[in-house]
Sequence to fold (265 residues):
Amino acid sequence: MLRVPEHAVLALDFDGTLAPIVPDPAKARAHPGAVPALARLAPRLRAVAVITGRPAEEAVAYGGFAAVEGLGHLTVLGAYGAERWDAATGEVHAAPPPPGVAAVRAGLPPLLAELGAPEGTWTEDKGRALAVHTRRTADPDGALALLREPLAALAARHGLIVEPGRMVLELRPPGADKGAALREFVREKTARAVAYAGDDLGDLAAYGAVEELRGEGVPGLLVCSSATGTGESVPELAARADVLVPGPEGVVAFLEELAEELSGA
Ligand SMILES: O=P(O)(O)OC[C@H]1O[C@H](O[C@H]2O[C@H](CO)[C@@H](O)[C@H](O)[C@H]2O)[C@H](O)[C@@H](O)[C@@H]1O
Fold:
């Protein structure tokens, strides 16, 4: 990446990587240093993308990514790649959600009541997916264990899959993942090097894409935004990463360092 920055794609996850984890998903915001660091870096790279499980428009708003000098060509791939926002147009492109999403939306409240989902269980309606969060319950891991199988069964009945994450089970359509989204973005930009930073299970697919690209001769760098000490780290991600940094603060420091190196290049 440092050797051919003008041919390199940098892609990053949002929650837990660019934005610190907070109890209320609606209050998540990019680390204050994230946008300035990306704005310094982006003009020196082929392209920069944020690849997230969030709806694209929400990630743009919570990230503060719109109308930023230096980020005029940023792309946000939301809903695991099913939605796309480009800073150059300010438009979001997405296919309509499949009908199974409406069926799951209707089926979730009675199922959660029937299961006795503990107080604090909260459903985030993302339009094309429903995410059931347990972070605000007294026992988040216990609540996840209680809900995991019944939610998987509900999702399967309506043609959806369950995407597990940090204190969340997301019921979403199959067919998109961060790996496919990253591969397609690298192809579109005809990039010759790639770096990806993530923190959660949903990022493993993007790690896989970078590893595949390496096999095809495209140099790749894997960065893990580690949640060490929180009980939420993903050992598989950490084991496959080239660089381990302590959460969004560490990611920002890493981006700043990279920007510094490239400004001297
Ligand atoms: O792909 P990402 O950008 O990492 O998005 C994954 C999910 O992130 C959000 O949930 C996570 O962050 C919340 C805010 O810090 C936190 O409260 C929650 O426990 C985490 O799982 C978001 O709410 C989900 O919709 C995203 O799919």
Observations:
- Residues 13-16, 21-23, 25, 28, 52-54, 124, 126, 131, 133, 135, 165-168, 170, 200, 202 surround L263DTV3 (CB under 6 Å).
- The CA atoms of residues 165 and 201 lie 6 Å apart.
